[in-house]
Amino acid sequence: MLTALNTHTRTHTGEKPYFCERCGKSFTTKPILSIHMRTHTGEKPYFCERCGKSFSTKPILSVHMRTHTGEMPYPCDICGRMFRQQPHLVKHLMIHTNKKSCNS
């Protein structure tokens, strides 16, 4: 039986014993592999009750719901502009710092 400690330890060791047979990517836990498989199967079990769009994970649905609620939980500390998603704030901050992020 896999304990929470064993699972956590994998974040430090880099061990990823669960492999996707379709693309070869590896994962630390079987549930994460199962979620990944949705990228291949197209399964989107989480539905927006307002507009009917479907999503592969609950967190993605939660972010989508902000388009309906208007929630913008990520404020820019420099100019006050608000963002629905943290990556959008990070990209915006480049305007103030004139620096490129590692992700761009």
From TrEMBL:
<dbReference type="InterPro" id="IPR036236">
    <property type="entry name" value="Znf_C2H2_sf"/>
</dbReference>
<dbReference type="InterPro" id="IPR013087">
    <property type="entry name" value="Znf_C2H2_type"/>
</dbReference>
<keyword id="KW-0479">Metal-binding</keyword>
<feature type="domain" description="C2H2-type">
    <location>
        <begin position="18"/>
        <end position="45"/>
    </location>
</feature>
<dbReference type="GO" id="GO:0008270">
    <property type="term" value="F:zinc ion binding"/>
</dbReference>
<comment type="similarity">
    <text>Belongs to the krueppel C2H2-type zinc-finger protein family.</text>
</comment>
<dbReference type="GO" id="GO:0005634">
    <property type="term" value="C:nucleus"/>
</dbReference>
<dbReference type="Pfam" id="PF00096">
    <property type="entry name" value="zf-C2H2"/>
</dbReference>
<keyword id="KW-0862">Zinc</keyword>
<dbReference type="InterPro" id="IPR050717">
    <property type="entry name" value="C2H2-ZF_Transcription_Reg"/>
</dbReference>
<keyword id="KW-0677">Repeat</keyword>
<dbReference type="InterPro" id="IPR056436">
    <property type="entry name" value="Znf-C2H2_ZIC1-5/GLI1-3-like"/>
</dbReference>
<feature type="domain" description="C2H2-type">
    <location>
        <begin position="46"/>
        <end position="73"/>
    </location>
</feature>
<protein>
    <recommendedName>
        <fullName>C2H2-type domain-containing protein</fullName>
    </recommendedName>
</protein>
<dbReference type="GO" id="GO:0000981">
    <property type="term" value="F:DNA-binding transcription factor activity, RNA polymerase II-specific"/>
</dbReference>
<dbReference type="GO" id="GO:0000977">
    <property type="term" value="F:RNA polymerase II transcription regulatory region sequence-specific DNA binding"/>
</dbReference>
<keyword id="KW-0863">Zinc-finger</keyword>
<dbReference type="Pfam" id="PF23561">
    <property type="entry name" value="zf-C2H2_15"/>
</dbReference>
<feature type="domain" description="C2H2-type">
    <location>
        <begin position="74"/>
        <end position="101"/>
    </location>
</feature>
